[in-house]
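writing this on my phone so excuse typos. first protein, seq and then structure
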Amino acid sequence: MSQVIQLQVNGEAAECAAQTLLPDYLQQIGLNPRLVAVEYNGEILHRQFWEETYLQAGDRLEIVTIVGGG
């Protein structure tokens, strides 16, 4: 059984399995990683680092969905 860690996502408590990559977590919560921007522990996390970012207990994520329109 994998360990569950506690996070804060958009100001609310959340959890995921330990050693979850950021893009995998985004998909698990129903978001398309190509259509969001992520602030990770107070810093905008550039997309080039997502594939090497494993979520840790206590991490704080702010996730903003990109919406198109005119």
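second protein below, same order as before
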Amino acid sequence: MSTASTRPPEGRYGRSSDARADRTLKVTGAVLGALLLALIGYFGYHYVGQNKISGELITFQVADDSVRVHLEVRKDAGASGYCTVRSQAEDGDEVGRADFRFSGPDTRIDQVVTLRTTSRGTTAELLGCHAD
């Protein structure tokens, strides 16, 4: 005795519906992947390529009612903008925050600024720099 085959004869009924679904899923996945890569590239370009001013906090010195902050700012020639600095107390409360403006033809500015605080701060943090 032999057993009957449960598969239909090949070529008789065309492509199976699973093969069509697999192809559709592959095409859809490729299109969505390409769109995601394009979106990441767009946001990356505008974040990195269009940022005309950036800064770095080099060091800081704490006093009872202020914090002296040494900032290094890099920007495009002629661009103007500001950097936001904040200080926190030992318990984590914010005791000072200020924006410091930078403009002019220089592309690199090394400057010490004073951030006034409501009580003794223990930290200085550069929150970010933004072009006008």
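The CA atoms of residues 59 and 70 lie 5 Å apart. thats all i got for now
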